[in-house]
């Protein structure tokens, strides 16, 4: 008899979480101006707001915390982190930052100027925000299959080469600082990019003399999908896939709070010495000295260990497998989700889930609020609120997909929690016809509004 699968770890410490009543949750979310970001953590039973910095570190990572070198310059913890990143990615130069959006701020300050365009697969919210803050424009070149949740395409994060070449033909190369490949592609549903597509983007970009950079927050999960779904890579190890993947890029930004398996941190990694020199100055201005860049030495040491652990196949099987477990439960209940199931989250199609809510009333946000009121489960809207307003017309941008993301923290919850989430969402689904209105905006920030927006019932 074949042995059943079990988690490749055992639990050493637990944290108590408290359930609440429906009446309490209804009051809390109203007091929070119907913004899930405004809820206090103790008001949330299962927190799927993000997988960023919310995972559990290993015993070896905690051991690294105790031996961190807190020297302001030349820390041995930085040297350990730098050599680890060089070994895993193949990039020569490393600049630590306190998190991923800080890495974007450093790199984009060095490369992006007003009226430039940055093509790529669906840009994440902070990425687009940093681009538009500089009065440049992000151009989405994701394949069309990504916008059909029923399409089983195995690599919905892929860049459409025809769309990309149209950008290259339309704008002079001086207006295109780089092409950005996000792995995995969060905004399109946590979907991976194939090795074949990465190679093709590199080849096309070389033709037009355009650099290629990675937003690599979930690079290990992307490598796992390449190994599972791409025939030519099945015999390769995860570290081999990662090294080849990055060999087609000129550099990367990383939010280490995802596949770095830490609670804080990020970095820029580069091959171009000139870009490194310019970016170093911005690191000092925005973050700190170039050998700590906003991170404590202990956190750099824990990150170096976490980067090693995230490339372990048993870990990745467990991590991606838990997300798949929840996705399969939801599909059994008939709940419409992005297929195939992505690496770090389940993305629920809010338009199909709540067909009676007008698009102007923020459908995915409405669904997130209903799930929280039902069971204390907090997700996040990946839809019209996140898409923000057009910087020129100031009209709402309505994305092709209106999604509720349920992001699963790493090594944090059990499959019993996944069962609870699935039933909670089914309960909302069973009363979906009763939900006919959503929310209006009372106040919003001029950019990246979804973090701080204040809403009221329609």
TrEMBL record:
UniProt GO MF annotations: carbon-carbon lyase activity
- The residue ranges of the Aromatic amino acid beta-eliminating lyase/threonine aldolase domain are 47-422
**Which biological process annotations from GO are given for this protein?**
aromatic amino acid metabolic process
Q: Which residues carry this modification: N6-(pyridoxal phosphate)lysine?
A: 258
* Any Pfam family the entry gives: Beta_elim_lyase
Q: Which cofactor does it need?
A: pyridoxal 5'-phosphate
Q: Which InterPro entries match?
A: ArAA_b-elim_lyase/Thr_aldolase (IPR001597), Beta-eliminating_lyase (IPR011166), PyrdxlP-dep_Trfase (IPR015424), PyrdxlP-dep_Trfase_major (IPR015421), PyrdxlP-dep_Trfase_small (IPR015422)
At the top level of its lineage, which domain of life is listed?
Answer: Bacteria
Keyword Heme belongs to the record: no
Q: Which UniProt keywords apply?
A: Lyase, Pyridoxal phosphate
NCBIfam families noted in UniProt? PRK13238.1
Instruction: Describe the family membership recorded for this protein in Swiss-Prot or TrEMBL.
Output: Belongs to the beta-eliminating lyase family.
Under the heading PANTHER family, the entry gives: BETA-ELIMINATING LYASE-LIKE PROTEIN-RELATED, TRYPTOPHANASE
This protein's name: Tryptophanase
Q: Which organism is it from?
A: Profundicola chukchiensis
């Amino acid at each position: 008899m074949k042995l059943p699968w079990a988690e490749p770890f055992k639990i050493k410490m637990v944290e108590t979480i408290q359930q609440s009543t429906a009446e309490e949750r209804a009051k809390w979310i109203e007091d929070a101006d119907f913004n899930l970001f405004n809820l206090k953590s103790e008001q949330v039973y299962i927190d799927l707001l993000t997988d960023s910095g919310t995972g559990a570190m290993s015993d070896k990572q905690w051991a690294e915390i105790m031996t961190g070198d807190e020297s302001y310059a030349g820390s041995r913890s930085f040297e350990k982190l730098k050599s680890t990143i060089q070994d895993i990615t193949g990039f020569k130069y490393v600049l630590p930052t306190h998190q991923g959006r800080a890495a974007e701020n450093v790199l984009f300050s060095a490369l992006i100027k007003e009226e430039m365009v940055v093509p790529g697969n669906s840009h994440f919210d902070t990425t687009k925000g940093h681009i538009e803050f500089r009065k440049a424009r992000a151009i989405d070149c994701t394949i069309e299959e990504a916008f059909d949740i029923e399409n089983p395409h195995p690599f919905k994060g892929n860049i459409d080469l025809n769309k990309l070449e149209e950008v290259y033909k339309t704008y002079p190369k001086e207006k295109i600082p780089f092409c950005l490949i996000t792995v995995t592609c969060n905004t399109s549903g946590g979907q991976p990019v194939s090795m074949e597509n990465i190679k093709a983007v590199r080849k096309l970009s070389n033709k037009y003399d355009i650099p290629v950079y990675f937003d690599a927050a979930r690079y290990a999960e992307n490598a796992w999908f390449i190994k599972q779904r791409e025939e030519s890579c099945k015999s390769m190890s995860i570290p081999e896939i990662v090294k080849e993947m990055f060999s087609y890029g000129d550099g990367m930004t990383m939010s280490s709070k995802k596949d770095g398996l830490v609670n804080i941190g990020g970095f820029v990694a580069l091959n171009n010495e000139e870009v490194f020199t310019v970016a170093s100055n911005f690191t000092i201005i925005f973050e700190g000295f170039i050998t700590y860049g906003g991170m404590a030495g202990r956190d750099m040491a824990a990150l170096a260990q976490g980067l090693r652990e995230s490339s372990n196949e048993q870990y990745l099987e467990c991590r991606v497998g838990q997300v798949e477990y929840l996705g399969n439960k939801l599909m059994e209940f008939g709940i419409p989700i992005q297929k195939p199931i992505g690496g770090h989250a389940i993305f629920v199609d809010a338009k199909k889930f709540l067909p009676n809510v007008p698009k102007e009333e923020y459908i995915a946000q409405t669904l997130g609020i209903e799930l929280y009121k039902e069971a204390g489960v907090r997700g996040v809207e990946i839809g019209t609120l996140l898409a923000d307003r057009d910087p020129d017309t100031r009209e709402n941008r309505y994305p092709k997909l209106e999604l509720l993301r349920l992001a699963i923290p790493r090594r944090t919850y059990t499959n019993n929690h996944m069962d609870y989430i699935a039933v909670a969402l089914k309960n909302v689904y069973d009363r979906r016809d009763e939900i006919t209105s959503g929310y209006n905006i009372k106040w919003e920030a001029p950019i990246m509004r979804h973090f701080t927006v204040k809403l009221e019932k329609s």
